[in-house]
Amino acid sequence: MVNVASVEKVARRKEEILQAAITIFSEKGYYSASIADIANLLKIGHGTIYRYYKNKQAIFDAVVTSILQKLATVVQDEPPETNSLQEYKEQIVRISDRLISIFQDDQRIARIALYETPEGNNDTANHVSASFLLFSKFIQEYMRNGVDKGFLRPNMDQEIAARIVTSMIFETIKAASMEGSDEVLVSRWRDEIIQIMIGGLGA
Amino acid sequence: MVNVASVEKVARRKEEILQAAITIFSEKGYYSASIADIANLLKIGHGTIYRYYKNKQAIFDAVVTSILQKLATVVQDEPPETNSLQEYKEQIVRISDRLISIFQDDQRIARIALYETPEGNNDTANHVSASFLLFSKFIQEYMRNGVDKGFLRPNMDQEIAARIVTSMIFETIKAASMEGSDEVLVSRWRDEIIQIMIGGLGA
Amino acid sequence: MVNVASVEKVARRKEEILQAAITIFSEKGYYSASIADIANLLKIGHGTIYRYYKNKQAIFDAVVTSILQKLATVVQDEPPETNSLQEYKEQIVRISDRLISIFQDDQRIARIALYETPEGNNDTANHVSASFLLFSKFIQEYMRNGVDKGFLRPNMDQEIAARIVTSMIFETIKAASMEGSDEVLVSRWRDEIIQIMIGGLGA
Amino acid sequence: MVNVASVEKVARRKEEILQAAITIFSEKGYYSASIADIANLLKIGHGTIYRYYKNKQAIFDAVVTSILQKLATVVQDEPPETNSLQEYKEQIVRISDRLISIFQDDQRIARIALYETPEGNNDTANHVSASFLLFSKFIQEYMRNGVDKGFLRPNMDQEIAARIVTSMIFETIKAASMEGSDEVLVSRWRDEIIQIMIGGLGA
DNA sequence: GATGAATGAGCCTTCATTCAT
DNA sequence: GATGAATGAAGGCTCATTCAT
Predict the structure, then answer these.
(1) Domains and their CATH numbers in chain C
(2) Measured between alpha carbons, how far is residue D52 from residues C178, D45, D46, D62, D177 in Å?
(3) Is the N or C terminus of chain A more exposed, i.e. has fewer CB atoms within 10 Å?
């Protein structure tokens, strides 16, 4: 009993700190954010934070992980099993809408997910945003499915096409989550992206 | 006379510092890079740098500006005056190739242009990479021209389509400048992007 | 009744903490040892320790006191009443052996007794190890007895000779408790110290 | 020229900091001493210290090294070449006197050299004061010489005897440098140690 | 009585910036 | 003009100590 309660309390505290960290990191970025900023936001002593996270980097890692988990749910509900261009189109719309909705609900997440780059890593892979990579992999599955089923171009370079499509979706998300982003604007983006995906730019 | 010589010398010194800054910032990122790193690379006293730039931020601003100028030359040579889808396609290829070539010649520039960071700006606009914005504006001109001339879809949302296309191009550039990036890979990307732009993904 | 039981329990707890403290302090030294280290060793909450000791310094004081008490038993059993150089020699051997045995039984005690540290005391006297002082006083009594009985040099400066002899004994103890310290090594030290005490170094 | 001057200035500054560090470390001990303490003593910014020493440990290492160098000069002037017990005795007196003089001139050095124990090292060797070890080695050479020349006991365990004698000398030094230590007291110690070394304690 | 969550003083260390030489 | 010595703000992190539960 005691354990359950305390485990829960610890989890709640970790979550509170995580949320404050998301706010602060999204406002100031990794380097400009200080542990004290996070503690002040929660009106707790800064030493307290170290009871829950080993160090600043660990907090940031937790932030990134938590965002990725949130994003992952979107694709988990969308298996690569559509059977026609129309279905595929609708699926892309659903995915975009849910992503946009996540980022609109919490603009802090958008700023981190879309621009997170704890620099100084020579490792190229790290320079590619983790959230981008996550979606790229999934989109590629959709591509494979579409080509297999025959409703997508067979000559497609699936890996590359997936990354291009991902970049389009992310660009939409950026626009949707950063700018004023009323419903009208969002649908303008969504419509345009679908049109390009389906038929390109040509007249 | 003396003045001319000295003005030139100052300009040369500023340029040397700029180049060193590009190297250091691209390797370490804004926050992890130190003024001393830049000075050491040039084997000059780090106090000297402050005779040419007001402070660290000013150096970084100069770096970004210089990169933008370099990128701007690409579009300056490509007026929005193509007359057919084919010509347009060829123009996009030329632009992509020149951008890729710039970034391959100087990978330092790529890392900064594509991931430029000093975050912590509440100003939303700043979060959109300056180089991205620059191209977006130009691409939009190409779109307008294409729609006006009738070889691009009239129902196109030009501003949005421009940003989507820019995102595709930049994704290509990232791939080209970061990854192994042999000629074969680059043309795979270029081909795919053209196909999507022209005819979408559909079979 | 209840009181007796509880008093006993408190004493037992204090002793447990003391033992853990001896272990930790001997391994890490005063400053590097943390209250949490001691608590963890006992698998108790670190707050609990403060119910038994006022603060960290008080624990260390108790440690030193406890060690001194242990060492004191050695000399308490050896009254300064020997009647010949031979008896005296044998007494010194007994004392050394018992000290060595204490320190070999519990190497933790050796590390603390011989190097006890919380420095930063301006008080000069504190710089002399408490255990050293304890023995010095006793050895001086042996000296007095020996001179009185006529088997030790009458021109001896008893206080000083006592400290010199103590330093020899402690050096032996250090060697015995720190280094490999097999029985052979210990007797080499003991033999040499006796020889020096009795007849010096000369041929 | 410029270089020579600057090298000299750097050396002087390092020396100033070293001296301040010796003062502070001797008063407070390694852990209780803070970089700020040292800087305040010199009335300089604490950041300045890091221009001359990598970190706190490096300062302490320099302190220990400097003390050891000072001590080493004492034995360097006293080769193990005496030819009689009398000469040997005189040599020991000279060495003791010079050591005592060093420590009396600078009591700070004494406190560090005689009680320095940067704890937390499991490595046994480190626990033995470096200055003690240094002298031990030399004294052993004197022993060997004395036994070879026949004026010291042939059955002597040279290594052990050397450490025992060193401990006597160091005890003398402690007394001389810590306590009131007028000339009279010092000679009482010196006389007693010589007597013990030569003829032991017996009547 | 026991616990461990919370606290914040305190410390080391880095580095942008200034300025005397 | 160039230099680099000096500075101190700033920030990450530890841990002894307190106290509500």
Answers:
(1) 4-201 (1.10.357.10)
(2) 37, 12, 11, 11, 30
(3) N
C14 CB below 7 A from strand E atoms: no
Whether residue B68 contacts residue B131, with contact meaning beta carbons closer than 8 Å, is answered with yes
How far, in Å, is the CA of D114 from the C1' of nucleotide E11?
A: 26
pLDDT tens, chain D, 203 aa long: 456 667 778 889 999 999 999 999 999 989 999 999 999 999 999 999 999 999 999 999 999 889 888 888 888 888 888 998 889 888 888 988 898 888 888 888 888 887 766 554 444 334 447 778 888 888 899 889 999 998 988 888 888 899 998 998 888 888 877 765 677 888 888 888 888 888 776 66
Q: Could you tell me the two tokens for C122?
A: 């301006």
Interface contact flag, B28 A119, Cβ < 8 Å: yes
Is there contact between A175 and strand E, defined as CB under 7 Å from any strand atom? no
C154 min Cα distance to partner chain D (Å): 7
Nearest to C129 by CA among C51, C67, C191, C201: C67
Q: How far apart are the first and last CA of chain C?
A: 69
Cβ–Cβ of B188/A153 closer than 8 Å?
A: no
Strand E bases, protein C-beta under 7 A:
1-20
Interchain CB distance below 8 Å, B200 and A196 = yes
Protein-to-nucleotide distance from the CA of C46 to the C1' of E3, whole angstroms? 8
| A 1-60: CB under 8 A from B | 27-33
